[in-house]
Amino acid sequence: MRTTTFFAVLVVALLFVMTGCSAPSLLITPVPSSTKLEEMTVQEPTGPFADKIALIEVEGMLMNARVGGIFQAQENKLSLFTQQLEIAEKDPKVKAVVLRVNSPGGTVTCSDTMYQMIKRFREKTHKPVIASAQEVMASGAYYMSTACDQIVAQPTSVVGSIGVIFELFEVDQGLAKLGIAANTIKSKPHKDIGSPFRPMTEDERDILQASVDEYYHRFVGVVQAKYHLTDPEVLARATDGRVFSGQDALQIGLIDRLGLLDDAIDLAREMSHAKNASVVMYKRPYGYSGSIYAETQTPTPQANVLQLPLPESVALPKGFYYLWK
Asked: How far from 168 is each of 4, 186, 196, 198, CA to CA, in Å?
């Protein structure tokens, strides 16, 4: 007991020295243990008995998997989007949805799934959905946004990157220099297509290119269904994989209008005839949300000191992506 007391006094003394001459303070903030999504008001209504605009974030890499940096809270972006959209669908006071998009895209399937979900939401509820581009609305994030009633982008937003990417690497030559060889037992010739342990054959390249072309034409199809780009030169430029500023995207015809997030929210109020509506978000019970621009995916409070957040696109699983890298 005496040793324990001495150690505690020593720790307090060290803290006292490290913080100067003032006594150290310890702040303990209790947080709810529930991880259920809760409605948070981020913009107050301007009148009594007001309706609501649901603001849903679409941020980071879009994929049907739990993502997040080392020691950070992880979230399945598709699962979270599904839950948020379902809450907005079931709440009769929610008259419209604004998607706050800041994403370079993601997997082909996740992007298309979110696209289909938005279309079904609009068809079922008849509630307007507005996409608001922040810094980036590229590739899969743009693909998904074409399902919305309108796309609003800032003049400096990065928009576009219409296309598909499938990346592979080969390590066989490097391993050979180390005297290492890989042996693969496979049922059919193409079972290990894309293996990094041997050169790709022309036949395999043709197979993968055919898949890339299929997903690319699907992407162009959803863009054409939304914006009907009739000039062949404009269509070719818009769909060659490059990105555009929001200003250029408007001139080409890839978005509906320029504006800030507030403008997108006002548009949602106008289209839903809910001019006095408040703005709400659906978030976990931990973290801070003080405005419509506040971060909403704050990691759960943790005891660790070291945090090493890594970009989600550093080591992507093999697959087809609507992604701007």
From this structure: 57, 20, 7, 11
Task: Quote the CA–CA distance of 58 and 50 in Å, as a whole number.
Answer: 25
Q: Which residues does 256 contact at the CB level (< 8 Å), separation at least 6?
A: 150, 151, 152
Active-site choice (103, 139, 145, 195): 139
Name the strand (E) or helix (H) holding 321.
strand 321-323
Cβ atoms of residues 99 and 148 within 8 Å: yes
| Active-site annotation holder among 34, 79, 186, 191 | 191
Which pair of structure tokens corresponds to residue 269? Answer: 């109020």
d(CA 202, CA 294): 49
The DSSP-derived string for 187-217 is SSTTTTTT-TTSPPPHHHHHHHHHHHHHHHH
Mean pLDDT for 191-215 is 90
* pLDDT over 90 (residue 106): yes
Please write the tens of the pLDDT for every residue from 289-325: 555 656 544 444 444 444 444 455 555 777 888 888 7
Task: For 13-56, give the DSSP string.
Answer: HHHHHHTTTSPP--------S----EEEEEE--SSTT--EEEEE
What does the pLDDT look like over 188-199, one tens digit per residue? Answer: 888 888 888 888
Distances (CA, A) of 314 to 61, 67, 105, 317, 325: 11, 12, 14, 10, 10
Active site residue 139: yes
Instruction: Say which residue the tokens 């903030």 belong to.
Output: 29
Measure the CA–CA gap between 274 and 212, rounded to whole angstroms.
43
CATH topology of domain 33-167+216-299+316-323: 2-enoyl-CoA Hydratase; Chain A, domain 1 (3.90.226)
- To the query of whether residue 191 is one of the catalytic residues in this protein, the response is yes
Handedness of CA 131, 135, 137, 140 (dihedral sign): negative
End-to-end CA distance of the chain: 59
The residue ranges of every structural domain in the chain are 33-167+216-299+316-323
pTM (2 d.p.): 0.80
Question: Rounded to an integer, what distance in angstroms lies between the CA atom of residue 167 and that of residue 247?
Answer: 31
